[in-house]
Amino acid sequence: MRTNSRPKNRLTQVVKGYNPMGHLGYLSHWLYNYRRVEPFRRYMHVPAMQRDPRIAFALDIIKGIASSLTKFYIDDGTQPTTDRNQWSETKTFAAEQLTRFWTVGAPHMFDAFEWGWAGGEAIYEQTPQGLSFSHLQKFHSTDIAPVTQDNRLCGLMVLQNAPRQFVGGHHAFFHVHRREHHPWWGRSILEPSYEPWVELHADNGALDMRKLYYYKYSHQGYAIRYPNEMMVDPETGREVHASVLAGKAVENYRAGGVWRIPSDRDVHGNPKWEIVVPDKPVGGHDILEYIEALRREMVEGLGVSEEIMQAASTGSGWSGRKIPEEAVRGILTGKVFWIIHDFETQILKPLCRLRGLSDEFTIVPFGLLEETREDNQQQPGQQPRQQPPQTGSIGNNQLGSRKRIVWGNQNGESNNRVAV
Length: 420
Hints:
four-stranded antiparallel beta sheet, about 40% helix, 2 domains, alpha+beta, about 20% strand, elongated
């Protein structure tokens, strides 16, 4: 009997082009973008945008903050302590694997910021204690596609080889950036910066305007008035028209030479030879300001304000930089959470079950925002800040199944969270 129902347990390679709004979504997207600029295509525009120096610098700032300032708290239901001898076997193993992943695996997953997705093959090693995570064999984002079973990730299809290779089970690691926009392809962090980037780099764009302007006015033509008569060329001794000597004089000046003209005057007392220097052009400063405005828009589209990239850490710019920096750190906390969540569900917890350990734990990233609370140094021109007393104990109120942990204590120590 023929049926239209989809068979269960079917492996399906996710194809690009999915749009939750259907054909109407495609039509509205096409009409909006084509009346402005060409639509953003990741395969074509991401590599070009990565070569922009300002975008590359902003991406390095984002990834540097996320990788260097993030700390983790492993909540396994036990009493938090910094004494590792009192940790459970599960927490000790999870801390070792998390440290290993954050060192050799997570930097590869930051590529998902630009492409929207990233993946690789998890490589394991056999130790005397059992199987452990070793490293991540990274694949380029454009060379992989997720494979699903009943709408769940079950592996990766490597597209760069012929024939295609399937990486399945717990060897497949796949991360999606901004998965609320698309469950498998996510959204590129470069997309909000695309329109100012096109306006800057496109044909007849801002950079072409700057190049044409300075080429034109750096070699703008000088005017020289010469008598309409025949004269003797001092170099050759031949009689030539004065226009020939005038042309040589202008070319000599353009090459860095000096003017050598006779001081003869006509019957009215006017000089027979006269050099007219053009006025200094205007508009170059406006073009440079236009380019800087576009670059600021590109950086702000990435979520990094101009104050973070330019203001000093102390002095008058410190107060104006601190609030945007905290906003960036807050956004990065969410991005780091999903990277750790994917590692926890796809690699770490299956490893724990394989080794007979409990998988009843949760990894909570922190430090991106709370690091700023420790910055209590008095800045120039500021009054000393008074810190309210804090208990330093574990709170009783519940957030879901997690306990609320108060940061710091009366002495400014922060030993209620376990930093890996």
